[in-house]
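User: Please predict structures.

Assistant: First:
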Amino acid sequence: MSLNEIKISDLLVNPWERIGKDWFLITSGDKDGYNTMTASWGFMGVMWGKDTFEAVVRHNRYTYEFMEKNDLFTVSFFDVENEPDKKDALKFCGANSGRDVNKAEKTGLTPFFTDGTTAFNEASFVLVCRKLYAGDFDLEKLNADERNKWYGNDPVHRQYIGEIIKVYSK
């Protein structure tokens, strides 16, 4: 089954399940070069009068380089309940760097190049996003318990708010 463009209002999704439990891939770049990474933090909603998705990427991630130099990114969600091998692919993409391995080749995911960016054919749905905002978290403003738990010696996240410009679904 292939992905088809749908209206965002037709997308019925529980973000607590799809983002926090099932995870997703953040991808930026095009056929000339892209990277993807697994994430389990993010937001979907309305900001500045637009349908948006917020993704966060640490500065040391290879995907960060692509997010910084491209105006577009995608978030690809998979049906991990009915296709448990997709959770294995997400685990691999989260534990390995695209600097060292071709994640699509290693996981069997098939990239498709659309709208000037990259997503994956096996996804159950994909959001194509145009960056509206990028900024680093200010750790001085973060609750000390959360700061110590999540950041200790790890680099800060950069927050990307993207306008959802297209939605593809199976």
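Second:
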Amino acid sequence: MEKLFSVSSSPHLRNIETTTGIMTDVLIALSPAAVFGCIIFGLKAVLLLITCIVCAVLAEFLWNLILKKPSTVGDLSAAVTGMLLGMNLSSQVPLWVAAIGSIVAIIVVKQMFGGIGCNFANPAIAARIVLLVSFPGMMTKFSEPLVDTVTSATPLAAEQGTYTFNNLFFGLHSGCIGETSAFLLIVGGLYLIVRRVISPVIPLCFVGTVAFMTLVTGGDVVTAVFGGGLILGAIFMATDYTTSPVTPAGKAVFGVGCGLITFVIRKFGSLPEGVSYSILIMNILVPYINKFTLSKPFGFVPAKNGGGKNG
């Protein structure tokens, strides 16, 4: 007799969305800004992106093979990590440095903590910070668009008024491969929102907090919002499912926290950019944010011994 019913514990929600489908949407959303970065920074940018993606996928494949675990390469999460890391690098970064970053992201930050869904921090963010600390000179050299000269005068490091709104918004300035075109990143973000892959709460709170704090302190809001990695980080990395809160209130707290830390680092720190550090710090605080923003079940009464019971 055909089995009509199965018995399992709750919850009993079913959804047609798969990890592969979600990651495919993220890759689609990232592609316009990535292609634009390759156009303005040339062959070096193409090779860096390919290196990051290939090394990330290969690292995950070999890890699963060596430990005799089922292959997870097909879920495309490693490809997304590689793409994000590559987009967060300058086109002047050596390929071997990019390869190290991808291996750190997949093996150290992701797989050593149990794989997808178990990592405490966004792998691409953590790997970028490791590279920044390990190879600061290589990670802070940037190319001007469409030329081969090297400069360190990114919009956040340059004098106020150096770049126009059009330069900043559409991406005709130095910077990391995937962060320059705010316009294309926003288009990709809107695609993810329409597809219901991400919620707009974190990006809006993140960007809004940075803009507000910059405005009230007399800074250049346009440069602060569009001149660095804020849009890329707010839309594509701060919204990572595993390392961001699950409740709307928690997402708002997370976004505001990221914005405040980014502003403080940019304003008072020795670094012009603070997006990566702010996201990593807030990633660590996510369990506590979830704890204080999750709704209590109806009728729940805390027990004296620290447990709980239903009333």
